[in-house]
Amino acid sequence: MAVTTPGRPTRLSTFRARLSAPRLLGVPLVWLLVAFNVCVGLWMLLSSVKSASEIFTDPWTLPHSLHLDNWARAWSQGQFGQAAANTVIVVGGTALGTLLLAAPAAYVLSRVATRWNGGLIMFFTLGLGVPAQVVVLPLFVVLDDLNLIDTLQGLCLVYIASSLPFTVFFLTGFFRTLPVELEEAASLDGASPLRTFAQIMLPLARGGLITVLILNIIQHWGETVFALVFIQDTSHQTLSLALLGFLQQMQYNGADWGGLFAGVAMVVLPLLVLYVWLARRIIEGMTVGSVK
Questions:
Q1: Does residue 218 share a domain with residue 134?
Q2: How many whole angstroms separate alpha carbon 37 and alpha carbon 269?
Q3: Domain containing 25: what range?
Q4: Is residue 58 one of the residues assigned to a domain?
Q5: Could you point out which of 5, 94, 149, 251 has its C-alpha 20 to 30 Å from the C-alpha of 231?
Q6: CA gap 55, 66 in Å, rounded
Q7: CB atoms < 10 A from the CB of 52, how many?
Q8: What are the 10-residue block averages of pLDDT along the chain, 292 residues in total?
Q9: Which residues contact 2 (CB under 8 A, 6 or more apart)?
Q10: What's this model's pTM, rounded to 2 decimal places?
Q11: Do 78 and 150 contact (CB within 8 A), yes or no?
């Protein structure tokens, strides 16, 4: 048993002393950032139910009356209803399609030891650093040859391709944290590798799968670059394009700032509710996946 000299600081106390100063500075900054974001969100919601004159004359006060017609006008004139349906279809299909492709690939990379594994993992890792602007033109040519320009299916394929590097990289680290003994026991019981993956490993990796599913939804919900290039018909536009189109209409139909804030709220609120609801699960999944 280690004996410490009275009055002499131990390594643990020294570490705590070093940690206390950054913590004392960091915690207030984090709460200030949280308070700022909450205030911005409340200001956005209040502005969405104000008249245009109130937004400029009384920007920091409660609305004198609720102008819910701002939401109705944005929903109808800005075509946010159809755009919301298109966004749900594209984002949901992208998230599920990405998981169907990335989960088996990540499992194989984490379990099968070959000389190609390091190169393949590096290949997916390099994909994280490719800017969207670099691949827009090649993707446009490929989708044009496949007659997938201005279709939700083409946009979904582009989103899946852009999501695979991060998803495979994330799930590879997550699968490595799962115990190998369970696979060995399943093999002794006669289970095939496919059955072991589907019935044993996937349920164990549920936390990581849900985390990466939510992160992909957040990533593509408000995406604009690919949607602006590959979608041309307004009936196929997503929420981000509907918001951009509504902003352009204001240049010709007058400044409808209340409707604009209502449109921004339609884009932001679903993601905010989803993140608040599942924030703990996201953090737990990322924490488990980062430790081997």
A1: yes
A2: 13
A3: 1-48
A4: no
A5: 251
A6: 12
A7: 18
A8: 49 54 72 84 87 82 82 82 90 93 89 74 77 85 91 93 89 85 83 84 86 88 90 88 82 74 86 75 59 46
A9: none
A10: 0.79
A11: no
